[in-house]
Automatic annotation (TrEMBL):
Molecular function GO terms recorded: DNA-binding transcription factor activity
Domain of life: Bacteria
Membrane-spanning ranges: none
Entry protein name: YafY family transcriptional regulator
PANTHER family: PROTEIN PAFC, PTHR34580
Annotated source species: Clostridium paridis
């Protein structure tokens, strides 16, 4: 007899006037006989159950008890549906769909339509328009490894394109800035590591299990060392890039200039990723300051031009 099923039945009965045993059996995928045994257990636990005979009958909790013991307000249920909907848009799962169905079971029948409309008014979709579809498959595989404490192996390509084979103990999946990351203990490097799933290939969940180590579930943040690497650069951009720069720099760091152009103050790290980002903007973006960053952009443009001149 599952305690979570008993709790769920109590929650449903507290929110509804009555519901049939057959309906409850369908919701929890058990037989009506099992539901009746659960109801008897709930009654013995001190929660007064009332049965309503007839065609439109069912099972309920005494109204006087419900007034005192109601668990969730309609606003609470709306919030639960919103949260579950966001998770479901990111990780497709039968468990989440079942949870959504159970939470909807808490809504009084006459208010189901209104609550569903309200919970759908906000939607957060982290899935990309385009991209590596293997990432979502890897997420599902890693979820299995997490629940069963199984090792995972994969090939990894770092930011510089260097490739390596890894065997890890998975501890947590993180979705940050629309990218999936795996926090784990790397057997190869004998230390905790973070891997970006878009750079993972040939992922396999191994049959070997591991005993979990002590793991710090703190938020994934920019390290102090990386923070020290940031400098602020001054850009002159065309108005067509303004919406993009709002995402990178924030509205407060974008100032009107003239001729439909804007000045942008952007946090910048002097590596290939950030320089390539500036180059991708083409003639719509000019680095004004500092001088050494401007000169490096010019050097990279000349190198690119040299390739095309010799081909």
């Amino acid at each position: 007899m599952k305690i979570d099923r008993l709790i769920s039945i109590v929650m449903i009965l507290l929110e509804r006037k009555k519901i049939s045993a057959t309906k409850l059996a369908e919701m929890f995928e058990v037989t009506p006989r099992t539901i009746y045994r659960d109801i008897e257990t709930i009654n013995m636990a001190g929660i007064p159950i009332v049965t309503y005979p007839g065609v439109n009958g069912g099972i309920g909790i005494m109204e006087q008890y419900k007034i005192e013991k109601k668990l969730f307000t309609l606003s609470d249920i709306q919030t639960l549906l919103l949260g579950l909907g966001i998770i479901n848009s990111t990780i497709k799962s039968e468990e989440i769909l079942n949870a959504i169905a159970k939470v909807k079971g808490l809504i009084p029948e006459e208010q189901i339509r209104d609550i569903e409309l309200r919970s759908n008014q906000i939607s957060i979709d982290h899935t990309p328009w385009f991209g590596n579809k293997k990432v979502s498959l890897n997420v599902e595989e890693i979820k299995t490894a997490l629940s069963e404490n199984k090792y995972v192996s994969f090939d990894y390509s770092d930011q510089e394109g260097n490739k390596s084979q890894r065997k890890v103990e998975p501890y947590r999946l993180i979705l940050k800035n629309s990218n999936w990351y795996l926090q784990c203990y790397c057997i190869t490097r004998e230390d905790f590591r973070i891997f970006r799933l878009s750079r993972v290939s040939s992922l396999q969940v191994l049959n070997e299990t591991f005993i979990p180590r002590e793991f710090d579930y703190k938020p994934l943040e920019v390290s102090k060392d990386v923070e020290k690497m940031y400098i602020t650069i001054k850009l002159l951009i065309d108005k067509s890039l303004r919406h993009l720069m709002i995402d990178f720099a924030g509205e407060e760091n974008i100032k009107p200039y003239k001729d439909n152009k804007f000045i942008v103050y952007l946090k910048f790290i002097e590596d290939d990723y950030w320089y390539n980002m500036l180059l991708r903007m083409g003639d719509k973006c000019e680095c004004l300051e500092p001088d050494h960053v401007r000169l490096e952009v010019i050097r990279r443009i000349k190198n690119m031009l040299r390739i095309y001149k010799t081909s």
